[in-house]
Design a protein that fits this description.
Number of strands of chain A: 19
Strand content of chain B: under 5%
CATH superfamily of the largest domain in chain B: MetI-like
Helix content of chain A: 10-25%
Low-confidence stretches of chain A: none
Structural class of chain A: alpha+beta
Low-confidence stretches of chain B: none
CATH architecture of the largest domain in chain B: Orthogonal Bundle
Largest sheet of chain B: none
CATH topology of the largest domain in chain B: MetI-like fold
CATH class of the largest domain in chain B: Mainly Alpha
Strand content of chain A: 25-35%
Number of helices of chain A: 8
Radius of gyration of chain A: 25 Å
Mean pLDDT of chain B: 87
Oligomer: heterodimer
Distance between the termini of chain A: 23 Å
CATH topology of the largest domain in chain A: Rossmann fold
Shape of chain A: elongated
Chain lengths: 367, 284
Amino acid sequence: MQKSDDAFVVFDRVQKSYDGENLVVKDLNLSIGKGEFVTMLGPSGSGKTTCLMMLAGFESATNGEILLDGTNINNVPPHKRGIGMVFQNYALFPHMTVGENLSFPLEVRKMGKSERETKVKHALDMVQMGAFANRRPAQMSGGQQQRIALARALVFDPELVLMDEPLGALDKQLREHMQFEIKALHERLGITVVYVTHDQGEALTMSDRVAVFNDGRIQQLAPPDDLYERPQNSFVAQFIGENNKIPGKVESLDEARGICQIRLGSGELIEATAVNIRKVGQDTLVSIRPERVEFDPERMAPDWYLIDAEVIDVVYMGDIYRTVLRVAGTDDFVMKTRNTLGAEKLPRGQKIKIGWHPEDARALNPI
Amino acid sequence: MSALPTYASTGQKIWYYGFRVICGLVFFFLIAPIITIIPLSFNAENFFTFTPGMLALDPEAYSLKHYQDFFTNSDWQQALKNSVTIAPMATIISVGLGTLAAIGLSQSHVPFRRAIMAILISPMIVPLIISAAGMYFFYSRVGLQGTYLGVVLAHAALGIPFVIITVTATLVGFDHSLTRAAANMGAGPVRTFFKVQMPLILPGVISGGLFAFITSFDEVVVVLFVGSASQKTLPWQMFIGLREQISPTILAVATILVVFSIALLTAVELLRRRSERIRGVSPR
């Protein structure tokens, strides 16, 4: 990760340990530009929330530096950082009305009454909750509380806003709607957002860049499309979207072209893009996205490798057919085909030939 | 218990009514001694018994003279004055220290928190006479025996466990992300405490305070040891009154205290309901 000069938030070789023995965050390097929407995505226990808490100031870094706008904030207490935050359970003050909740950060900043009222009203209008200023949090639904929490994090015009799984408690439809709204607010206000989630859909739709966390490290930091199309290791390939993996051994490696040949367990030889292959003879997992697999000869180029497959099961999912195949000794190989006019369900047990573009097969490290 | 189902057997029917009788008896046993003193305190005679006139509901047999005695007799007035000065001061100390202790002990990083908690709670568990004797010797050494300050401190020590217990119970339901949210919005620890944490744990603080107040208000053992005649409180005066001259004025005082306690307990109950309402709201 390059440390660029215009980076707004920088984690520089940050480590965190709670007990002095096990590192929850191991060597975190991340720089976030001004106005960027960066999501920390990962399974629970991967260290992503710890990173957010270190940035907010609720946890201290064991080693390394955290910079905000060029200044080291390791020893700045949370209440002096001026960072907005939306908490997982909203953390609205139950004894205050919505208006008082929003007014709180402004009172702390010793702002005059009329200015406070203007700002509170503006913030509530921004999340379409203008009529709710006199309600108490308990009198509102989860979605409404979520909007209030968002308004409260934005009301004091912070340049950086942190969000800790803010949509986790909402139902699917509301969640998708709020994703859209948060994204729109981010673009309109030009704020920098660091967003933590374990929902990859959320991460892919909202972010400029996604940092995939696992085991206390960033596995890959990339824009959503890159992350999906070009995962850099097996963990990312498995974690983001559905993925087929076929184990094999590297038979030859053409480093100049970035291509290698893989001998599969079943004896077949295929060509794949070498991603993190270091030497001939090493074990590898070849990753292929289900929607990049073809079985219709008309849609395949003549230079594609073809492999024998047997249909185990087909599930009709409306827009697609999800076909489970036995390929090269694995029987959980998935192929997704579009449900076009005249498309038909393959019968079980049918033997077919499948293929894919060599670029779509990515030879990754074995897990 | 809901209404008796139609298919109940004879045994179940007997138990159904028997259970109610037992409950009634328990209730009677608890309440009767307290209820009896109320009419007796309006006795026109200087005795602890129901006179024939009282039983006949003769208005002549009732009077307020014992109440009058209480409000005019200088001994009683001195005792009342002592009680209403000592109890609030002891309560303020108990609430202040007890609340801080509860908040401190609810932080997981405090070492030996269980042991510290046990020590602070101990005045409630150790037999009162032991505490009283211990305090007597200790306070004599440090010159607090027979002073108002000594009695106030002794009562504060007795009241602190109640405050710690009620505040700790309230803190269990306290959502710590609220203090984080406050800090995040720029509020320092002091403002966060008074604007966010305190209002939410206030019901626990107040009910703890009421318990501490009542403890001091009807405590007799410790004050006998630690205090001297000039720190004589109401319970002390009642105790002496029972021993030396059996005057129904004691009954009048008792009635006033019972009414006062009921008022306080009602306040506690109302606060508890308010606290539950606020707790129910906290989003989770």
